[in-house]
Amino acid sequence: MKRLAILLGMLCTQAALAGDVTVEHAWMRATAPGQAVAGAFMDITSAADAKLVGASTPLAGTAQLHTMSMSQGMMDMHEVKDIPLPKGKTVKLAPGGLHVMLFDLKQPMKQGEVVPLTLDIVTAPGHHEKVEVKVEVRDLGGH
Fold first, then answer.
1. SS3 assignment, position 11
2. Is the pLDDT at 52 greater than 80, yes or no?
3. Residues with Cβ < 8 Å from 108, sequence gap 6 or more?
4. Which of 4, 34, 47, 127 is the most exposed place for a label (fewest CB within 10 A)?
């Protein structure tokens, strides 16, 4: 079982590629019992100006693009319509900032599992690329 978890972890650290878009280090935290939401995090680099406009997974009812910030000691999290991907710059989706929020999870997410996630990226007016990402589920602390 441990070998399988190590092998899955190695697969998840490899980059997902589609056209001129690279996604690396995709991960999410394991969920607590009864938890039906979770955030997914990753590094996205595009060779041309592009935008992340959506995401989906068969393991959640809905996936949304979100941002989170702290203001006067209060957390503010809300949906955004897109996430700009400037040419040649890595955009980090990370805890406390931009991320993909998964709602209505269909099962608990357990450490060592891999969640399939499809990113919808607009690379030119009217041109969408689907990028298939394998998201590694880490322990509750994100390690």
1. helix
2. yes
3. 30, 31, 33, 35
4. 34
